[in-house]
Fold these 2 entries.
Entry 1:
Amino acid sequence: MEFMEDALKNAQEAFERKEVPVGCVFIYKNEIIARGSNEVNETKNATRHAEMICIDLVLSYCKKLNLDPQEVFREIVVVVTVEPCIMCAAALHNLSVKEIVFGCKNDRFGGTTVVNVFELLQSSVKIVGGVRDTEAMDLLKEFYKGENPSAPLPKTKRKV
Amino acid sequence: MEFMEDALKNAQEAFERKEVPVGCVFIYKNEIIARGSNEVNETKNATRHAEMICIDLVLSYCKKLNLDPQEVFREIVVVVTVEPCIMCAAALHNLSVKEIVFGCKNDRFGGTTVVNVFELLQSSVKIVGGVRDTEAMDLLKEFYKGENPSAPLPKTKRKV
């Protein structure tokens, strides 16, 4: 899938900026209108996930072209390398995006895995997971290996 | 509690702007450093909840005063008139705020009621609910009464 290729490139770029490597693109009428990746470390703002970056870019896009954001979001397909976290999942539900396509699962924070936010909120968003998941996961593993050699793999749940 | 008084004022102000009346203040070292209320309708951005507005204001505050946002957020007490939704609850967890004080419950979207996001994410955020909850709920009831034309009619007898 060409769009996931683009999202993976953004994840790679985040990796190079020493951010958790998650990349994302937002598709509107079969065209990419926003590209994003994690900016948490750079901004020291733990909410600046790839999806949140893209949400803001779509709003700027709508403003520029004088489009109604509500209508645009309803047609948006989100393509993201890692399953959206609970915060992003709820944000995407709030915006009523059309579809979410993700790569690998997010066993610690995932908004469909840890808890199914979409089910809880009776969402009609279509969700497809597992698209090029190995590549997405490899990037995460590489990142966590580099960051903290003694850290468990991202898939391992933290013990309390 | 004086801070909830301030949050309720912000909720009232949102009501007057025809937004879902939720108001919020963020406290740092016993002082209000951010005030926010819903801006969803105005911005046509369903993620612009009171808490998200305040998060951005805290980041501006930190930039201006050259403070580390991570350290500041760790000391923040969030005072909000309505229980944070799942998105905001997860965002506040991500930012590791110190404490959340809320007014009334949010039975449809609440991040502790519909699902306990903090428990799921093994959060150490202290949470206190029910502070001046009647006033917060009254504002919501008043708003939805005015907004929803299909809401049940008041039980006054119609003259024939």
Note: DSSP finds seven helices and five strands in chain A.
Entry 2:
Amino acid sequence: MYRTHTCGELTLGDSGKKVTLAGWVQRSRDLGGMTFIDLRDRYGITQLVFNMETDPDLCQKARKLGREFVVQAEGIVAERSNKNLKIPTGEIEIIVERIDVLNTSDTPPFTIEENTDGGDELRMKYRYLDLRRQNVRSNIILRHKMAQEVRRYLDGQGFIEVETPVLIKSTPEGARDFVVPSRIHNGEFYALPQSPQTFKQLLMVAGFDKYFQIVKCFRDEDLRADRQPEFTQIDCEMSYIHQDDILNMFEGLARHLFLEVKGLVFEGPFPRIPYDEAMSLYGTDKPDIRFDMRITELTKAVKGLGFALFDDAPYVGAISAPGCAGWSRKQIDELTEFVRRPQIGGKGLVWARVEADGSVKSSVDKYYTADDLANIALMTGSDAGDLILIMAGPGEKTLSALGELRLEMARRLGLRDSSVYAPLWVVDFPLLEWDDETQRYYAKHHPFTAPKPEDIKYMETDPGRVHANAYDLVINGTEIGGGSIRIHDPETQSLMFRTLGFTAEEAQKQFGFLLNAFRYGAPPHGGIAFGFDRWTAIMGGSDTIRDFIAFPKNNQARDVMIDTPSTIKQEQLDELALDIRKKAQQE
Amino acid sequence: MYRTHTCGELTLGDSGKKVTLAGWVQRSRDLGGMTFIDLRDRYGITQLVFNMETDPDLCQKARKLGREFVVQAEGIVAERSNKNLKIPTGEIEIIVERIDVLNTSDTPPFTIEENTDGGDELRMKYRYLDLRRQNVRSNIILRHKMAQEVRRYLDGQGFIEVETPVLIKSTPEGARDFVVPSRIHNGEFYALPQSPQTFKQLLMVAGFDKYFQIVKCFRDEDLRADRQPEFTQIDCEMSYIHQDDILNMFEGLARHLFLEVKGLVFEGPFPRIPYDEAMSLYGTDKPDIRFDMRITELTKAVKGLGFALFDDAPYVGAISAPGCAGWSRKQIDELTEFVRRPQIGGKGLVWARVEADGSVKSSVDKYYTADDLANIALMTGSDAGDLILIMAGPGEKTLSALGELRLEMARRLGLRDSSVYAPLWVVDFPLLEWDDETQRYYAKHHPFTAPKPEDIKYMETDPGRVHANAYDLVINGTEIGGGSIRIHDPETQSLMFRTLGFTAEEAQKQFGFLLNAFRYGAPPHGGIAFGFDRWTAIMGGSDTIRDFIAFPKNNQARDVMIDTPSTIKQEQLDELALDIRKKAQQE
């Protein structure tokens, strides 16, 4: 070893010890006759001190060290006169007796500090330097800790980690696959998995009983902000279980992670909110329940009183923002602008405020009596000082806009504290989704998701009404994971395919492989998959998954550090028997 | 849950309990008035019993259950009259009161037994049924256990698990890359990593200090038996260390795995054998030291005595097989045939045997005196009853052939017991390998491997003589892993490139990316990578990695279960702007 200790472990108890440290020069200061160097490694920072009087040569040598030089220093641990109590090593320093430069460094293109002067592009290009910054490094260490604790919990619960293949087969449905041309079988391709869904179900058929994997998955999507073409899933499946068994098992995983990673304990079970309720109370299937401000439907209460906007609307709903009655015209105008953004799609905003005396003032006073308005205040549970925000329009769209407004109000009121965690289960998702364009139902989850037994009777008469044994884990308004109980009997599976408009032949062609396996004694089973990047980001108090991936790609699916994708040699194309179309090359 | 207990846990202590089990029908027997069913799950087998007298309907129902039907059975735990002490549940049975068929099964294409009647192709096609067999399942469970223990050890030693990207850049040197066409950047490609070598070195530059990952790697090679296009590595790197630190750390990992997975403890450190010694004593850089029978060089001792074969040979060497003096002519002929196989490449075999009275008889008696032969016996350490096998020819080739003969003799003598483990380190590999065809030196490991400091002086004058700080872990004659200390200073790196015949421009073009990173303060570092499939197979007492991979590919790189690689849709090719050459399609 080049060191006896790390830069993060020496304290007053080590005073007088002769030690050797190795690390990077974080900072260097000359104060009259003394030179101080902050030496940094993964574990912390330790101050090195050089005295011009006692050893001028050594001190001169120290003064020549540049930022990010790699050095090895030997010396004696001593108490500091000027203590820094913010860091564990802040009470000591090393009186250096020998220092060797292990490597020099060019001046880094940005400062290696928590608040760096480097822009996003530059930091990504020099990601290996960006990763030296303490905050970025601690994100990656958090991810490591999450991964170990996920495995510790699941291993302890009898799950078997099985690696499923990466070179698999392209499937026609779903998102776009990345494909890999075969050299041995020219003209044929592998595909990279979007998820190990098929394989984990096969492992249940194989009798593995409880499976998990922390696994890279791939989706060739048009990239939106903070999507990655390769991402990591915690993928799990269990046999001989009902929905409750899965929710309990993985609520246990979430509790384990909160405890081990954040030191947090949650009293009582996580709330379980049916999908329909989540939509009507929060306007979303991933409600942020760190705060209340639920949506109240007012449709019946406000209709027929002469205000055309409400009279004509299929749906009217409101949220009540506590203590916001005093908001200015300008502030309310900002909210109106917010809901009118194209991505929110609201027409406008009606407000009503509950005055200190309990009376209600509103922007539509002329249409509604004091009693009408008092009734609205009552329905929305508003007290003196609260601001009621009302929207009208088509049900689904208006609920969604109210949901967005609810989040925006919470943001403005500081109710979305990233150190507060509010996990919940959303359950009873619809089994099917109607698509107007193709005029057919699609599986909301996938075609192997089991309908709720009590809803099977509607499968042929009213498919939209059928709910599924499908569930999502939501934390702070973000979907962390989701899954379902799978269909394991051939009759229900046939019914499902009929409902989706597949002939038996089509079903066989697309899913034949799994259907064949199911003929050999598939057990009842179900599972869940979590977005590991996302979950880690949330645990790190961030929305940005890229900060929790060591070497992420940018929004163009490009790794700017290694400059990929890139062209390959003609020999490689020849071996694969592939030609790149000229038109594309010229683009 | 569909069960109160698994099929592997009920014992006499549970007698009288009412339980519910779920699993697969392994076997069913009708004995007069009784029907017995072996119910199987991942955890074991439990006997269900049905009595025609007490409940004829239930018994009739049980008799109709086919092999691999999935059933749920409720009943009372009772002591068996006819105990099976080979399995933990063999002292009890369940007197069934209710049985439900959860799923039926077609007759499986082969028997789900340890010794199945299914051939290799068939079992691979129905791998999900093959995985139901207890021996195959326990291989995969062993792999799970290995993976958890690898992580437990390395996490405990302060290693951080970091996921490196799968979509990386194609590199010109080394084995062939699998490539992934980019849809967003037409004409450009990602490549799948052959190893995370570059990224782990970057993580050291980034200050991660100790990194590991259990990671899929990809190599598009022409497949030899038991090679897989995708395979799994335990990939590790450390900073501020010397070679000894790495060997000690990973010897610790090996000891941890042997203890936790096999219950084995090794006294004393693993032997560390220099490469040159391994080659001269065992004829290979991966010696199997479960047995002795080392090679003795006889070149000087046998020359100049008139036997042309030896006189003309650059090298003569021998092994001495204990207790084989009595081997028949036929047996020795078999050995001669063995060494003459093209893959061994020996010309023939000379033998000498030490008789009970200490005299030596040999196939070349006419050229050598009794004293000459006695001397050979002495040199090879042979005692009465031993058989000396001598080969002659070019040094390297003959040593290699003697090495193979040594393994073959051990096989015949039953000295290669797969339940015995003999780990060792081979160290001090040559830094460079001369290639006759291209008339240049190549890096034996990779161009970032550090030469041994004491050999740097030969770098320009006699490069073949330079040894590296490179090492392999070998168990039972199989290389389990290997690594090296890396070059971290620019001067040694330039020297290395000059020795490999690279101009500065060429070096920059091929390795510029890593060289740039090294300019910003690279710490001294080194690492190792283990073949996880191979190591698991060895721990499972097998040579065949395919048996330890849940869903392997065949020797044509094809997954016969999901039938991939396969053709993709024209739309997919269009989006990628790729054309498949017609000639290739017709092949």
Note: Chain A has three domains: 12-103, 137-272+423-549, 291-412.
